[in-house]
Amino acid sequence: MTPTSEVNTLPYVVGDEVVVTLADDVEVFNLACMTLMPPALLPAWTIGRIVSRDVSGIRPAYVFCMRLRGMRCMFVADADRIEGLA
Predict the structure, then answer these.
(1) Which residue of 3, 60, 62, 66 has the fewest CB atoms within a 10 Å radius of its CB?
(2) CA-to-CA distance for 43 and 68, rounded, in angstroms?
(3) Do residues 76 and 67 make contact, with C-beta atoms less than 8 angstroms apart?
(4) Of the candidates 65, 71, 82, 59, which has an alpha carbon nearest to the alpha carbon of residue 15?
(5) Could you report the per-residue pLDDT of 26-78, keeping only the tens digit for each?
(6) Which of 52, 49, 50, 53 lies closest to 4, judged by CA?
(7) Which residues pair with 48 in a beta bridge?
(8) DSSP classification of residue 66
(9) What is the pTM of this model?
(10) Band of the pLDDT at 13, cuts 50, 70, 90?
(11) Burial of 59 (0-12, 13-18, 19+ CB in 10 A)
């Protein structure tokens, strides 16, 4: 399957709020401080809003926006990290 055909089969769309499992390899960027959040401060999962699709890599992924400890954050995660709609 090519990345282009996978993008067309991604089950979620921009604007969906979903439950996302975070892991050690997910980098969460704090927009207020313009820094990466320390992994120790990240929860095991979060609710994020899909703001875009990232098809630049081999596997398609989503770009998410969320609030963490009151701060606006963004991160990119593979589609398999999504547990379902929030």
Answers:
(1) 3
(2) 9
(3) no
(4) 65
(5) 999 999 999 999 999 999 999 999 999 988 878 889 999 999 989 999 999 99
(6) 53
(7) 18
(8) E
(9) 0.83
(10) very high
(11) exposed
